[in-house]
Every structure is written in C-alpha cells, then in structure tokens.
Specification:
This protein is mostly helical. It is built from 20 helices and no strands. InterPro entries: Poly_Biosynth_Transport.
Length: about 525
C-alpha cells in the first residue's frame, strides 16, 4: 500500500515544462532543418534522417526496462525503500552499459555494410560511414543516461529533466547555425550535434541529490540478479509490446530508404516528421509524467480514484492536443510554404493525416499509463503484433508509388488497430472502466470544438481574402483560437477546471488536490 499521496502539482509541472521544452526543440528544428537542407542538399540531409531512424529503432534493445524500472522505482520510492532502489539502479547500470556496447558494435557493422541494405549513392557512403562511427562512440553514454532519467521520474522530477533538455535544444540550434556559418562538412555537424545531446547527462546526475542516499549507492555498478529478475519479469512483456510498436513506427523510414524512389524521400519524411513529432513528443511527456503516478494509484487499488485520474487526464490532454493538431492542420500548407518552399506543398495532405492519427493515438495516454502500471500487458502484445504485421506491408507495397505517403498510411493503419483493441478490450475488460464515457465524455467534446473552430476559420478564409504567408497564419490562428476558446468556455470547461489550472500555475496546493 502506498504511503504517499499522488502529487497532482508534480504531474502538472512535469507536463508544462516538458511541453515547453518540446516546443523550443521543435522551434529550433523548424528553423534549422530548411537551412540544413538548403546547405547540405536534400539527398545528403536524408543521411541524417536515416541515422536518426536507425538509432531510434535500436531503442528496442531496452527490452521494456525503461517502463518497468520507472514502475518499480516509483513503488519503492512511495515506500521509501531506498535499499531496493539502490540495488535495482546499480544492476541497471550494468544492463544498460552492456546493451550500449552491443549497440555500438551494431553501428560499426552498419558503417561497414550499410550500402548493402540502403539505396545509397556511392559518393554518400564515406559520409554515412563516419556518421555511424559517431553514433557508435556516443551510444554507451546515451544508454546509461536512461537509469538517471528513470530515477528522477520516480521521484517526480521530470519538470527538472525537461528544463535541462532546454539546454540541449539551444545547443542543437547553435551547432546548426555554426555549421552553416563556418561551412562545416556533414560529419562535422553530426559530431557536434551528437555531443550537444550528451550535455544534459551530468546535469541530471547532479539532480540525483534529491534522493537521501549517496550517488555511489545508486550508480556504482553491482549486479543483483534477484531484484533485476523482478523488474525484467514485468518488463519482458513491455519489451515484446515495444518491439512491435518500434518496428511499426521506426522501421517505416528504413523501409522507405529501401523501397522508395531514393534516399531523398527521407528528407520529405523528416520534414513532416519534425512537425508531427511535436505532438508525439507531448504524448511521450504525458506518459512519462503519468506513469509514476498511475503506478502508485493502481497499487492503492482505489478504483474511483483510478477512474477519476483517467477521465480527468484524458479530458485535459484532449483539449490541449485537439487545439494544437487542428491549428496545425488549418495552417499546414502555409507552414510548409514558409518552412521549406513551394516544392514541399505536396506533403500537406500526408502531414494532415499524420497529425490526426497522432491525435487519435495520444488521447489514449492516460489509459496506456494505467494499463502499463497494471502489469496486465499480455493482450497488448497480441494487439501490437497484429497491428504491426498488418500495417508494415502497406508501407512496402505503397512505397514505390506514394513514397512518404506510404509510411503515413501504414502508421494510420497501425494506430486504428491499436486504438480499437484498447476501447473494445482493455478499457472495459482489464481496467473495468467505461469506454463510452472516456471516448464521448472526455475525448470527443474537444474534437467537436476543434472541428467547429476549423470549419469557421476555413469558411471565413474562403469568403474573405486573407493574406498569404505569416500574416495569414496569424489571422487564421486568431480566428480558430477565438472560436475554440468560446466553444470550450461555453460547453466544456467549468469553473472548477479554471480553479484547478489557476492553482497549479500559481503552485498552490489546495487541500483537495490529492483526492
């Protein structure tokens, strides 16, 4: 039984700082990607997109330990069980160090034989090879940093973690501008970009002082097979689920590199991915913040509290994501025109489909956090496997003709299958919650408000001549925001919601926040 209440203000703080960090990171990419594509060329920039995709796909080597460790660390932290936390974290150092070394060997292999797997031009092979070597040199530190993030997550310190990522985002931006100004080669830029991503690690290590135990008790490598088996036993199911999820998501650009018309298609993919990833990253933040709290709530066995957390979190997340997604859809063509130029306007339809797919997926984050906390993930493995097996061939078949569109349609198919499983099975059968109440009561109202605001904004744009470019985006966004806000204040948001948000923004802790 948990001995500590769930701190709602910590969830709110972690989410807000995470969102701000992701917005800043997206803004930096929004500015730098067109500059980098213009400087290095569409084909060579595709090598960066390929490197990112390979690195992301190899995250499956985590074996589900990231989710499993946060779950157990959170439960032990709630009971002040510092001994188990120390044993598990020191074992994790050995685990992540080992897979970091394996990861490095894979990158070395890909450096030497990558031309056999991907549609690379002969003059791109030396650059590609150097980039793989750079990834192999950095991967061990990146893997080890997972342990630090897991510990801070369990201590509800994601607000700090997300503030630190701001430093990395700023450095990423500085590196890109410096590379263009001083005419660095692509390998030089990629080296300094990789270094900038490692900067948060020492800052996060310093934050571990929030634990009432010495750093050595948490970070000095020492194997404890018994406690590690406890975590890996839970995590193995998460790994199988993650294997299919990562395969379905991160293998899509790799399949494009093999089956599409050329490596430059990955630049198109990277362009719309950067915009869509802003929304996807919000969902990741919500899951990171909710998982420790969901673990504690589930451990208490308080079903009304569980139901309240899922409904309330789904409602707030849906309001936020509906606003952002439909605002981006409304301005997608104008954004792409300003972002990359008229040659990229054909990507608007695929960007819009991707954004709406992400909205459908991300509203389910509170339910997913509770499912992961329950440990009842066997059926989730089946649904992930089914969705993966059915969706990947779509990308392969459509890639030669639709190029980047093949990856988007494949992702849509995957998510439709996954969401269907959640609403038909997991919510009513496993969590014993009301699927209709969550979908129609927490998610749909905000989507309806966004559709109304979109229709009004789009209709006015047809009736009244609105300037093109940045000014047009501002005007369209102002109309959309006004209608969206009016709809929500009239029909959705209540006085209690306003008081809740006001109290969190002012960092007050009303007596009812822990209910």
């Amino acid at each position: 039984m948990s001995t500590k209440p769930v701190a709602v203000h910590r969830i709110f703080s972690g989410s807000v700082w995470g969102i701000l960090a992701k917005i800043l990171d997206a803004a930096a990419k929004f500015v730098t990607i067109p500059l980098l594509v213009g400087y290095y060329g569409k084909a060579d920039y595709g090598l960066i997109a390929l490197a990112f995709s390979l690195n992301a796909y190899l995250r499956l080597m985590d074996l589900g330990m990231n989710v499993g460790s946060v779950r157990f660390f959170s439960m032990w932290e709630a009971k002040a069980d510092w001994e188990n936390i120390g044993k598990a974290s020191r074992s994790s150092i050995i685990f992540y160090g080992t897979i970091g070394l394996v990861n490095a060997l894979i990158f070395i292999f890909m450096a030497n034989y990558g031309q056999l797997f991907f549609n690379l031009n002969p003059d791109q092979i030396p650059t590609y090879r150097i980039m793989m070597y750079i990834l192999s040199a950095s991967t061990v530190l990146n893997w080890l940093s997972n342990v630090i993030i897991q510990l801070l997550s369990a201590k509800d310190e994601l607000g700090y973690v997300n503030r630190v990522t701001v430093v990395s985002s700023v450095l990423n931006f500085v590196v890109a501008i410096t590379a263009i100004h001083f005419k660095w080669s692509l390998p030089q830029y990629f080296l300094f970009y990789t270094i900038s991503t490692l900067v948060p690690i020492p800052l996060n290590i310093l934050r571990l002082r929030v634990f009432p135990v010495p750093l050595g008790q948490m970070l000095t490598p020492k194997w404890d097979g018994k406690i590690f088996r406890e975590i890996i036993g839970y995590s193995s199911a998460i790994f199988l689920m993650g294997l299919f999820q990562l395969t379905a998501n991160e293998l899509r650009p790799i399949l494009l590199a093999k089956f599409a018309s050329g490596i430059d298609v990955l630049t198109d993919y990277r362009v719309i991915q950067t915009i869509a990833m802003l929304i996807i990253s919000f969902g990741t933040i919500f899951l990171q913040v909710l998982l420790p709290s969901a673990s504690k709530v589930y451990q208490e066995g308080n079903h009304p509290k569980m139901e309240k957390m899922v409904f309330t979190a789904t409602r707030y997340i849906s309001i936020f994501l509906s606003f952002i997604v439909f605002l981006l859809v409304l301005n997608s063509e104008a954004i792409l025109l300003l972002y990359m130029g008229k040659d990229y306007l054909h990507l608007a339809i695929w960007l819009n489909i991707w954004l709406l797919t992400v909205l459908l997926n991300m509203h389910n984050t509170p339910v997913a956090s509770l499912v992961l906390s329950s440990g009842k993930t066997r059926f989730l493995i089946y649904s992930s496997a089914t969705a993966c097996i059915l969706s990947l061939p779509i990308t392969v078949i459509l890639a030669p003709t639709l190029n980047v569109g093949a990856a988007v349609i494949g992702y849509l198919a995957y998510m439709l299958i996954q969401i269907g499983f959640f609403y038909i099975y997991y919510i009513p059968k496993v969590l014993k919650l009301d699927s209709k109440k969550i979908f129609f009561g927490a998610f749909s109202p905000s989507v309806l408000g966004a559709l109304v605001a979109f229709a009004v904004s789009f209709g006015l744009g047809k009736l009244v001549e609105i300037p093109e470019g940045f000014l047009g985006i501002v005007i369209n966004s102002a109309i959309f925001t006004t209608v969206f806000a009016a709809f929500h204040f009239l029909f959705i948001i209540k006085a209690a919601d306003i008081e809740f948000l006001r109290s969190k923004l002012l960092k007050r802790k009303p007596s009812h926040e822990q209910e």
